Amino acid sequence: MMLAPAPYLSGSIVQISDGVAGVDDTIRAMRALVDQCKTDLTIRQAATSVAFLQPEKDEFAEAEAVFNYVRDHIRYMRDVNGIETLMTPPQTLASRLGDCDDQSCLLACMLESIGYPTRFVVAGYNGNGFEHVYLQAWVGNRWVSMDPTEPHPMGWEPPGATVIAAEAV
């Protein structure tokens, strides 16, 4: 069996609190990755390549093209068992895999690299606390939900989710 070529991955271990404080820590770490990586040339090149064929100044079409790219070309892969991990957006783009936080960070970076503000939405189900994160982007004078881990169109939101927090912008 041949293994798919993968980029060299590296990282560091940091302590994240339990409970709500841990959710806050994770969202802060995600925002820091977006702020750090949205000017990365590989991220901007990917975003501009995807958005380029859309009608000029059609915000919805550009954002949708970037969303569809991440949804359709980045494979969902769970974290290490029992350990919350965050990949940098360039690592997620290069490896073409990641969980909900990795895919949301990549999507946020790509959208912000071409001018669309974003925020993370933390959701839970059945009172179980934090279980999922997805993105909202400011498109056409409104926040539009984008969950790249599900086979649904831009604007779809997970049913039955309780929004625990939407990142302040």
Distance between the termini: 47 Å
* Count of runs of 4 or more consecutive helical residues: 5
| N-to-C SSE string, H for helix and E for strand | HHHEHEHEEEE
Query: How many E strands?
Result: 6
What level of helicity do the residues show? 25-40%
How would you sum up the global shape? globular
Protein structure class: alpha+beta
Q: Tell me about the largest β-sheet.
A: 4 strands, antiparallel
Measured on Cα atoms, how large is the radius of gyration?
Answer: 15 Å
Provide mean pLDDT, rounded. Answer: 87
Low-confidence stretches: none
Largest sheet, spatial ordering of strands? 5-4-3-6
Percent in strands: 15-25%
Could you name the key traits of this structure?
single chain, about 170 residues, alpha+beta, 4-stranded antiparallel beta sheet, two-stranded parallel ribbon, 6 strands, about 40% helix, globular
Q: In a nutshell, what does this entry contain?
A:
This protein has 169 residues and is α+β, with helices and mostly antiparallel strands. The chain is built from five helices and six strands; from the N terminus they run αααβαβαββββ.
